[in-house]
Prior knowledge:
Number of strands: 10
Helix content: 25-40%
Largest sheet: 10 strands, mixed
Strand content: 25-35%
Amino acid sequence: MLPEAARVWPAPAKINLFLHIVGRRPDGYHLIQTVFQFVELYDELRFTPHPDGHIRLQTPLPGVPPQQDLCVRAAQALRAHTGCRLGVDIELTKRIPIGGGLGGGSSDAATTLLALNRLWGLDLPRTELVAIGLALGADVPVFIGGRAAWAEGIGELLTPIDLDEPWYLIIDPGVAVATASVFGHPKLTRHTLPITISGFRSGPTDNDCLAVVRELYPQVGAAYRWLAGFGQAHLSGTGGCLFARIDRKQAADAALAQLPAPWRGWVVRGRNCHPLLADPLPSK
Length: 284
């Protein structure tokens, strides 16, 4: 078994099986209902702790200043919360598309909190890490909680949910969607009537951001039409990635083989548990 400091720490993508916007808080944040499920598309992180107190990202992302990177911000937030004086070098292998609605940045932040909680010997309970993560982004808590979840509020009120774990075909048309441009759009539907979990299971549900994203990013509309030829197409989060449930992997692989260039795609399994959920960690 590799020592903790040599370990590769996975950060899975998520999809939103639906996304309804049911209102807006006085501070401007949108109130949502959604279901998060993890999928087997991963970023990978490596952490090298050291005593010098510096937090360094060894693999900065193009166009993202290191101090704004969510991994760095997560490490800084954990140190500020605990008073820890240790440092760390962070290596990130990025596979989840940026701006794709798959939660890559939030997942990276969550894995950073989970990993450094161990590597720095902090042993904070998962609930405390969730509170730190929420300050970094509304999607971070579900990755720390580690279970597929029904989500309400701004996405932080989570109820674990058992789902099928089917095959999905995920399509990335190469568009990095600016979430603020979607939530700020005057045509965005903001008052969908709330539903229950049983209502979600019986359907139909949709993504209230789809029409706006398709208007702002025609490439997403083109990918949506293509994907609809193989199954019911869905937008994940605020986009721009799309997914369709395809029950047989062979059929999903055959569809992926026909993917137009320069789009990217993946055939992945849905998963109800985060790969780090089995790691020992206090729950309270």
